[in-house]
Structures are given as C-alpha cells and as structure tokens.
C-alpha cells in the first residue's frame, strides 16, 4: 500500500506553474487551509498574493504535496527536483502522456518521481475539505464538512460536476486521478477506507488497469464497512475506445466488471443520478 497520507492531507503545499496554480491557491485559501503555501514561477512575482520562488529547488522544506501545472516535458524536471527534496506527493496537471500515445514520456515521469507518489498525469487533482486543501485549478462548490463521501474519478470534467452537485449529499473530497501512472483507483480505495471521516466511496471508473489490486482494496473496504458505489462507463465497444483515448484506460469486457463488482459487494449504478442517490 502506498503511503498517501501526506499527499491527501497536506500541512504544506507547493504550487508550481502559472494561472492554474493561482486559481488553485485561491481555492485552497477559500477553504481556510491552515498550513504553509509556496508558489513557484520563474518570471511572476506572486501568485494569488503568495510571493513566488523561482524554482522548486528554492522551496525551504520538504512539502507534503505539490500541484504541478507546467507543460508535459518540463514537468519531468520539476518532479525530479521535488522528489529530491522529499516531497510527499504530486498532482500532475499536464496532458500529452500515455493518453495520446506518448508512453515514453509517461515512463520518464514515473522514473523521475523515484517513489514519490504521483496523481495523474492528465488530471485535475483534488479538493479535500477535511484537510482544507484544493490542488484544483477550477471553481468548486464544496464546503468543509466533518464527515462525508469521497468521490474518485479518472475524468476531470466529471470531477468538476461532482464538486457542484446540488443535493443533500455531504461530499468530503473529490479526486480526479487521470492516467493513474502511479496512484491508482485501488490505492485511493485502500487509503480512504481507513479514514473514519469517510462514510462511503463513490468511484467513476473507465477502466481498472490492475484488477487484482482493486479486488484486494475492495475486500479491505468491505472489511472496514465502508460501502463502495460505482458508476462504470465504457460499457460498449465504442465507449471503450473513447475511454482509451481519454485517460489511457482499457475498459474491458463489461460482463466481467459486473461479476467483479458483485463478488466484492460493490453497488453498480448506470446513471449519475442513481449514483448520487445511492451514495
């Protein structure tokens, strides 16, 4: 099991990039994040009121989490620098990796991390109201709660919609995990099901690259009495092709997923409305 505690519940965050980072810093400030925020940009003087450092090497401490929003190739060097400084994990916003066929660049990204947890690439990141952190470059309708559901999706667009749900559902956190180069759906389920503040876990799944690992995580969540609800897309052959081009996911045979979910007591829903109501 990957140790994601620092990444998901950070006490210090570095934001590396430009406009997307400025937005993410504002979202984090609006949630009332009590920890230290660092902003990194080689040319700008400040991001959302935070004075900038010129490079990741200038960050004076090993931060718990980083939001990296630079182009895909420069991302490699940033990840390497943060890993060398003992960062607890990073969200990779950039696209143009395996989902576009660039598997070599994705391999280099994972190599540069040297074991530092990576969420993404090609992802929106997350909003965790429990830790009042938003490594998230967009609007969000989430308010801090003491206990609620965690929503995990591979799609940034779906994640944005989840943060804006106008229902009486207490949402503690929303995670967009993109290509799952490192942190996979199973890692998130294992970690979140151990948190007593999480009442249930909702998954929007395009494909599961490591089914045995997911099965182990689902069994663990069931043992911990944390229910899982799934909205599985890519059910048809055409849908599977769309999923592959979207986040480099193999959707697989739908009937096999049905059998997997039934075996581990996971409720599968076929619409977003049913998914939210079941949670």
Please, could you describe this protein's structure?
The strands form 2 sheets. Strands 3-4-2-1-5-6-7 form a 7-stranded mixed sheet. By secondary structure, it is α/β, with parallel strands linked by helices. It has 10 helices and 14 strands. Helix content is 35%, strand content 22%.
At a glance:
With about 280 residues, the protein is α/β, with parallel strands linked by helices.
What labels describe this entry?
10 helices, 35% helix, seven-stranded mixed beta sheet, globular, 279 residues, alpha/beta, 22% strand
Distance between the termini: 25 Å
Please work out how many helical segments DSSP would assign. Answer: 10
Q: Which term fits the overall shape?
A: globular
Strand fraction equals 15-25%
Summarize the main sheet: 7 strands, mixed
* Widest beta sheet: strand line-up: 3-4-2-1-5-6-7
H/E element string?
HEHEEEEHEHEEEEHEHEHEHHEH
List the helices and strands and how they pair.
Layout: H1 5-8, E1 12-17, H2 19-30, E2 36-40, E3 46-47, E4 50-53, E5 65-69, H3 72-84, E6 90-92, H4 103-113, E7 118-119, E8 125-128, E9 133-135, E10 148-153, H5 156-163, E11 171-176, H6 185-193, E12 198-205, H7 211-223, E13 228-232, H8 237-247, H9 254-263, E14 267-269, H10 272-278
Parallel strand pairs: 1-2, 1-5, 2-4, 5-6, 6-7, 10-11, 10-12, 12-13, 13-14
Antiparallel strand pairs: 3-4, 8-9, 8-11
